[in-house]
Design brief:
Elements (H helix, E strand, L loop, with lengths): L5 E7 L6 H12 L6 E7 L6 H6 L8 E5 L6 H11 L4 E5 L10 H9 L4 E5 L6 E3 L4 H18 L10 E5 H7 L10 H11 L4 E5 L1 E3 L8 H19 L9 H5 L2 H29 L5 H21 L2 H8 L14 E7 L6 H9 L8 E8 L5 H11 L4 E5 L5 H11 L4 E5 L4 E2 L5 H4 L7 E10 L6 H23 L10 E5 H4 L3 H5 L2 E2 L2 E2 L4 H11 L3 E12 L5 H23 L2 H4 L1 H32 L5 H21 L8 H22 L10
Parallel strand pairs: 1-2, 1-4, 2-3, 5-8, 6-9, 10-11, 10-13, 11-12, 15-19
Antiparallel strand pairs: 4-7, 5-7, 13-16, 14-19, 15-16, 17-18
Helix pairs in contact: 5-8, 5-10, 7-8, 8-10, 10-24, 11-17, 11-23, 11-24, 12-17, 13-14, 17-24, 17-25, 20-21, 21-25, 23-25, 24-25
C-alpha cells in the first residue's frame, strides 16, 4: 500500500505561460508539509512546449512527473488519466492556471477527516470570493448553464464547475472508472456518479481568480450541454452505479423518454437564447427584425405552454359527477357534401354507418354537388347496402357551403357531424366526439385529424407532421380557452340549435361585393364564436383525410387557406375583443399581425439585409430551426410513436422561403373566387 498522503493532478493544454507559476506555488506550499505527495501534470497534446517546462522543475520537486496524452483528448480525459495512476490517500485535481490557490487545501483536508468522501471548491457559497476578468456575456452564460445543470441533474451542489476537487482514494477509485465524459462536462458527471453511489460531498467556499485567456469558448457551452444529455442518459440506464439498479434498467422506458425530451427542451431553449443573444449584439443594425423575432418566439412559446394544460381543460368540459347517469346518446346526423369523389366517398360513408353508436340514432346525408364522374353510381351502390342513406343529388355544382347548409336544414339530428367527402372518423372513437355536448355551453367540437396518405411521398409526410402540430399543439392551445378559431372540415361536430339561426348569414357571406366561396368551416366557427359560444378540440377522436400529394395541389390548398384566413381574420377582428378579450389581445390579434408581417420580415432577413447590409441570415435561420426543435420536442412528448416529426423541419424551412409569401399572393388574388367548389 502506498505511503503517499496526497496526489495532485493538473490537466494542462498549451499552458506554457502559466504552468510555471502554478508549480512554484505548489512547491512553496508543499515544502513545509510533513507528508509525502506527488504532482502529476497531464499534458493534453500541447504544442507550445508545456511538458518541457514542467520537466525543468523535476530536479527541485522530486514528486513531480509528466504524463502526455498522444493527442488532445479533453480536460476530463486528462484528469481521469492522472487519477488512474495516482496513489495518494487523498487525490486533488486543480486547474493549471492556479485560479484556486493550493492554500485552500488546508481548509479541505479537515472535512475529509470528518468523513466526507469529496470536497469541492465553490464560488456560490457564503464567504466565497470572485476576481473575474471575463465579460458580462460569459458571466450570464455561466449563470444560465449552472441553472440548467441543476435543473437537469437535481444535484444539490451550487457550483459544479470549479477546478478544485479533492477525493478520497476510495471515492476516486469508485468514480473515475465510471467516467465517460472527456471534455468540459466531466465535472458534472463526477458529481452525478458520486450521488448515484451515495458518496458524501462537501461544498466549500474558495477565492477564485480568473486571469483571463480561458479556453472555454461559446461552443464549449454548447458541447457541455450535449455532454449533459449523455450524463442524463447514462444515469437513467443505471451506468453510474457500482451496483446497477435493476429496476431502473427494467422499467425505464417511459421515464427516460420524458427525461430525455425535457432535457432536449432545456438544451434547445439554451441554444435559442444563445442565438437570440447574438441578435442583441446586432440590434442596432436591424431593430425591426430583432423585435419581430422576439415577438414571434414569445408568441409561439405561449401556444406551446398553453397546450400543456389541454388535457386538464378537456376534463373540465364534462364534469363526471354532474354528468347524466344514463349514456348520452342524442340523435346524430352526418352531413357530407361531395363532388367527383368516386374513389373516396365509399369509405367515408361506410365508416359513418359503422360508428360505435346506436344505429337507430345515426343519420347519414350526402349532397352530390354536381359530380361529373361516377360518384352518383357509387352512392347508389352504397344505398343498396345502407337503406337509410339520404342522397341529395344536384345536377349543377353550388359549392361546399351550400351543400353543408342543405344538410343542416334537412337533418333530424341534435348534433351534426360535418365531414369532407375524403375524410372519415375511426368508428371506435366516434362517441368521444359526442360526449362534450353534454356540457350545454359547448356549441362545436373539432376532432383530431391525420392524413390517410401520409406515407405516400415527401409532400404528404411534411403535411402529416404539420397536421399533428396544427391540431395537438395549436388547436389544443386554443381549446384551453374554449375558443378554437377553426373547426376543421375533416371532421367537426356542431350543435344544430346553435347553427340554424346563423345559417342564412353564414351562407350569404360577402366580401368586397362578392360571395365567399372558401373557408366555409372557419367562417362557420367564427359565427359561433361571435354568439359567445364555446368551441373546443378533442384528440380523443381520430379522423383521417386525404392531403395533396403534389406541389400544384398543395399550392392551391395553401392559397385557399390563406384567402380564408384574410377574410375571416378581418371578420373575426370586428367582434373577438368583445366576446373574448384575453384571447383577442394575447392570441388572435398577435396571430393576425404575425401572419401579415412574416413575409416582409422574411424578405428583410433573407434577401434585403444580405444585399443591402451584407448580413447573412444565418442566425435568423438557426433561430427558426431552434424554435422548430422546441415544437418538435412537444410533438414527441404528446405522440412518442408518431414517426413524421422530423418532417416538421422541412415544413418550417419551406414556410420561411415559400409558404409565408403565399399570403401576399392570396391578398392580390382575393377577388378571384375560383377553386372554391368541390
Amino acid at each position: 500500500m502506498s505511503n503517499l498522503a496526497l496526489s495532485i493532478i493538473i490537466p494542462a493544454y498549451n499552458e506554457a505561460e502559466r504552468i510555471g507559476v502554478t508549480i512554484e506555488s505548489l512547491r512553496r506550499y508543499l515544502c513545509n508539509k510533513n507528508f509525502q505527495y506527488e504532482i502529476i501534470v497531464v499534458d493534453d497534446g500541447s504544442n507550445d512546449g508545456t511538458p518541457d517546462i514542467v520537466r525543468t522543475y523535476q530536479s527541485s520537486i522530486p514528486g513531480l512527473r509528466v504524463l502526455e496524452n498522444e493527442k488532445n483528448r479533453g480536460k476530463g480525459y486528462s484528469v481521469r488519466h492522472g487519477m488512474s495512476v495516482a496513489s495518494g490517500a487523498h487525490r486533488l485535481f486543480m486547474d493549471a492556471d492556479n485560479s484556486v490557490d493550493i492554500l485552500h487545501l488546508d481548509m479541505f483536508l479537515p472535512w475529509m477527516n470528518k468523513g466526507f468522501d469529496i470536497t469541492i471548491g465553490s464560488i456560490r457559497t457564503l464567504n466565497a470570493a470572485v476576481h473575474e476578468k471575463n465579460g458580462w456575456h460569459r458571466r450570464v452564460l455561466g449563470d444560465l448553464s449552472k441553472f440548467l445543470i441543476r435543473a437537469a441533474t437535481q444535484l444539490q451542489v451550487k457550483d459544479t464547475q470549479r477546478g478544485f476537487k479533492l477525493f478520497s482514494a476510495q471515492a476516486a477509485e469508485t468514480i473515475f472508472p465510471l467516467q465517460t465524459i472527456e471534455r468540459f462536462g466531466f465535472d458534472i458527471e463526477l458529481l452525478v456518479i458520486a450521488k448515484e453511489n451515495r458518496l458524501a460531498v462537501k461544498e466549500l467556499p474558495v477565492a477564485w481568480v480568473n486571469p483571463g485567456g480561458s479556453k472555454v469558448s461559446l461552443t464549449s457551452y454548447v458541447h457541455t450541454l450535449w455532454e449533459l444529455f449523455t450524463i442524463i442518459r447514462n444515469r437513467v440506464f443505471g451506468k453510474y452505479s457500482v451496483k446497477i439498479n435493476k429496476f431502473l434498467r427494467f422499467d425505464s422506458s417511459k421515464t427516460s423518454y420524458k427525461m430525455i425530451l425535457i432535457f432536449l427542451g432545456i438544451i434547445s431553449l439554451f441554444l435559442l437564447i444563445l442565438i437570440k443573444s447574438k441578435t442583441v449584439v446586432e440590434f442596432q443594425n436591424d431593430p425591426m427584425l430583432f423585435v419581430y423575432s422576439i415577438f414571434v418566439t414569445t408568441f409561439i412559446f405561449s401556444r406551446l405552454f398553453s397546450s400543456l394544460f389541454y388535457n386538464h381543460s378537456l376534463s373540465k368540459v364534462i364534469d363526471i359527477k354532474n354528468s347524466q347517469k344514463e349514456e348520452y346518446e342524442p340523435l346524430v346526423s352526418f352531413v357530407i357534401p361531395c363532388k367527383n369523389e368516386a374513389e373516396a366517398i365509399y369509405k367515408t360513408i361506410t365508416q359513418c354507418f359503422e360508428s360505435d353508436y346506436p344505429k337507430n340514432k345515426l343519420e347519414v346525408i350526402v349532397i352530390n354537388d354536381g359530380s361529373t364522374d361516377n360518384t352518383m353510381e357509387v352512392l347508389k351502390k352504397i344505398k343498396r347496402k345502407y337503406k337509410n342513406l339520404i342522397i341529395v343529388n344536384w345536377k349543377i355544382n353550388k359549392g361546399k357551403r351550400y351543400g353543408m347548409a342543405e344538410g343542416f336544414r334537412i337533418s333530424k339530428g341534435e348534433i351534426i357531424i360535418q365531414l369532407d367527402s375524403d375524410s372519415y372518423i375511426e368508428p371506435k372513437t366516434f362517441r368521444n366526439l359526442i360526449k362534450p355536448f353534454q356540457n350545454l355551453e359547448i356549441a362545436a367540437v373539432c376532432a383530431h385529424a391525420d392524413p390517410t396518405n401520409a406515407n405516400k411521398n415527401f409532400i404528404t409526410k411534411m403535411q402529416a407532421a404539420y397536421y399533428f402540430m396544427s391540431f395537438r399543439i395549436l388547436k389544443a392551445a386554443e381549446s384551453v380557452f374554449m375558443s378554437v378559431f377553426c373547426c376543421s372540415g375533416c371532421s367537426s361536430a356542431y350543435r344544430k340549435s346553435v347553427v340554424l339561426p346563423i345559417l342564412d348569414e353564414w351562407l350569404n357571406e360577402m366580401f368586397l361585393g362578392k360571395p365567399v366561396t372558401w373557408g366555409d368551416d372557419r367562417a362557420l366557427t367564427s359565427w359561433i364564436l361571435k354568439l359567445g359560444h364555446k368551441v373546443i378540440y378533442t384528440d380523443k377522436v381520430k379522423a383521417f383525410t386525404i392531403v395533396p400529394d403534389n406541389v400544384r395541389q398543395l399550392f392551391k390548398q395553401q392559397l385557399r387557406w390563406k384567402k380564408s384566413w384574410i377574410i375571416n381574420g378581418i371578420f373575426t377582428s370586428r367582434f373577438i375583443y368583445k366576446q373574448h378579450l384575453f384571447m383577442a389581445l394575447f392570441y388572435f390579434f398577435p396571430l393576425l399581425l404575425i401572419s401579415f408581417l412574416t413575409p416582409f420580415m422574411v424578405f428583410r432577413a433573407m434577401i434585403y439585409s444580405p444585399i443591402a447590409k451584407g448580413t447573412l441570415p444565418i442566425y435568423y435561420i438557426l433561430g427558426s430551426m431552434m424554435v422548430t426543435t422546441i415544437i418538435v420536442i412537444f410533438y414527441r412528448l404528446y405522440a412518442p410513436k408518431n414517426k413524421h416529426w422530423l418532417y416538421l423541419y422541412a415544413w418550417s424551412f419551406l414556410n420561411i422561403i415559400i409558404f409565408s409569401y403565399i399570403i401576399i399572393y392570396a391578398a392580390i388574388r382575393i377577388q378571384d373566387r375560383g377553386w372554391g367548389t368541390r
